[in-house]
Amino acid sequence: MVQPRNGVTTRLVNVNGEAELSVPKGRGRKRAKEAEESAAVKKVKVQLKAPDITDGVVLTVGMGDIGQLGLGPDVEEKARPAVVPNLTDVVAVAAGGLHTVCLTKEGKVYTWGCNDEGALGRSTASEEDAFTSGCVDIKGKVVQISAGDCHTAALTDDGHVFAWGCFRDNSGLLGFLEKNVLQKSPRQVLEDIPIVKVTSGNNHLAMLSQDGRVFTCGCGESGQLGRIAEMFASRDLRNGKGIETQLEPHPVKVCRRRKAIIFDDVWAGGMTTFVRAKATGEIYGCGLNNYNQLGHEDTSNKFQPVLLKSFSGKAWAQISGGQHHCIALTEAGEVHAVGRHEYGRLGLGDIKHDATSPTPIPTLKDQPASAVSAGECVSLVVMRSGSAYAFGMGTNQQLGQGDDEDRLTPAEVTGKQLAERRVLAASAGGQHTVLLAVPK
Fold first, then answer.
1. How confident is the model at residue 151 (pLDDT cuts 50, 70, 90)?
2. Among residues 287, 181, 170, 180, which one has the least CA distance to residue 234?
3. Residue 131: which H helix or E strand, with range?
4. In whole angstroms, what is the distance from residue 334 CA to residue 330 CA?
5. What domains sit in the chain, N to C, each tagged with a CATH number?
6. Is the per-residue pLDDT at 228 higher than 50?
7. How many helices (H) and strands (E) are present in the chain, helices listed first?
8. What is the spatial distance between Cα 304 and Cα 255, in angstroms, rounded to a whole number?
């Protein structure tokens, strides 16, 4: 029994996840409606993004000295993509800073690479354990994964988020949900809030709830959390609460005409976060903007989400943030780049200036794309045809071109292991690239 302040009693009975209400008048009616909405939102079913994928395999290329390639302790680098052994029916991949994550059709998560700060979510007693794939023990069927520099997140089909590892800032370790804590096994985050998407930046995590809110946690020193003012986004606050404020997940609040904006998508990457307004499709962004990587003309960091007018006029399907640039994809398959031009990471050729707003990449103009990924100084584009392109800094061989040269324009990723396969997804790590491919 619930006793409202006006003295009117409201009876709440939950049967099969639904609320039956004896609806009173006045404020009691409002409270009953809120309770009904709360009961209705408790159940959520999140589907795999591409449930029809079959026979998916993982291919890796680049540096693997910490095991991030997953090819065993004897393989520390690859100039062309190689298949990671002992993995079948893979449906999603995510490259962290020095580790790799993949998801199988059965909802199992496998990890490999650097485990110094718990990013693998499992025990690695020997070097070989970190250089080869191992399953993470997670309660439930996982349907989404994401990875940052030292953390990993997984979303189950019933809307629960499990994450592990840690977040860092420029001064060192921040912790996970608590200050200075390394979370070496999966831990549930936001237990009472149904989540429909998880996405990771280098050192922050963003989660989209069923009711259209975005929750963030991790490092906020560049504004990437979108909910902490610059003066409070520091570990050096007098009350000692600077770190705790960042690590505890809280919602991002954006209002327009005094009404809270409901979101239908979120993309975290590098030190930026982008959100999409459900009603209008408008893009808001926050975080590091020193090279206009947010697409905002003012290069100051944005500690609250700001409307990005340069993204107006197009329907955006995906935005991926690197360190100083972003790659964006429209619903029509057009690929745009914005931010710093050095090393060719924008794919615009031998230009001498940064891109201050999303700019179409000419050489990809006539080929619709299906996915994009931005790493620290590299970019990856997957075409609907099943081919993959890479451009930017080639020092770590993660462009998959067989050498360590930079590419100023998109270059197709080829090799023996791709001859009879088509690429469905790509993810750029700190020094390596991960591809998801299926037979042609």
1. very high
2. 170
3. helix 127-131
4. 5
5. 1-40 (no CATH), 47-439 (2.130.10.30)
6. yes
7. 3, 34
8. 11
